[in-house]
Amino acid sequence: MDLLSSASMGLAAVCFWQKDFVINDLWLVTVLLIGGAVPSLALVIAAALSLAIVLVHESNSVRKLKSAFLKNWRMFMLVWALFSLCHRSVLTEFRHFSMVAWVSGCVQLLREPVQLKLRLREWRIAAGPIYTMAASWSFVQYVRFATTRAGASIAVVGGIAAVVASFVLRPDNQELDRHLLRWLPNGPAEWPTAFSTRARYHGILMMLSMVLLTLLLLAEAELLLVWIFFPLLLMDAARRITASQAVALGSMAFRPA
């Protein structure tokens, strides 16, 4: 049953983090999340989806689920493995989740050499949600057992940054943005809507969560993880600064005299 509920979480992840996500997919994601959160319902949901495949083979939801799985099967496998390890109490502590976040974060940060970047592209896409989940759980575990207000505050800010970056400010999800804007009192004026702007804020918040996680690892004396993670953070920061300078120079070059 645990394996089935973990598979339900994996399917929910690939449906939500697919590039062509539309707001109508939320109901399917919600059903799958319920199956993952309540293992006793996972079998019922699996049976219902199987029946839908048999009776309504060409239904939009079934085709969406199939397409999302085929495109992001790596993500499905990673999420399924992560939740299976949680169900079997292999991952229970801050150190456990932070190591998973560290591995997935390293995959995100490895951009040089170019050949390695290209080889890791699909795995980088798949590891994005894994970083969000593992980092969020790391921050939650740290808050639960924090002995100082400073440490707890860092964990809270890091968790919020990771969740907002991955769920709310996804650069390729204009559909979700459009519906979220309805809840803002002044509409789009207070929210980044352009792809480049959302991508920039997404990158800043993800980088912030990684820096804060590194600080907590340092506080827990996980020096080996810090020594490997920190240089990658510096490399990514340098890459972003260089890209920003190039954009600024380009805009100045085309500015009329």
Percent of sequence in beta strands:
under 5%
> H/E order of the elements?
HHHHHHHHHHHH
Please, how many helices? 12
Terminal residue distance: 68 Å
Q: Give the class from helix and strand content and strand pairing.
A: mainly alpha
Number of strands: 0
Q: Helix content range of the residues, please?
A: over 70%
Rg (CA only): 20 Å
Question: Mean pLDDT, rounded to whole units?
Answer: 78
Largest sheet geometry:
none
Could you please describe the fold and organization of this structure?
The protein is mainly α and 257 residues long. It has helices spanning 2-16, 26-37, 39-55, 60-71, 73-87, 94-109, 114-119, 121-144, 149-168, 174-180, 195-219, 223-253. Helix 8 packs across helix 11 and helix 9 runs antiparallel to helix 11. The termini are far apart.
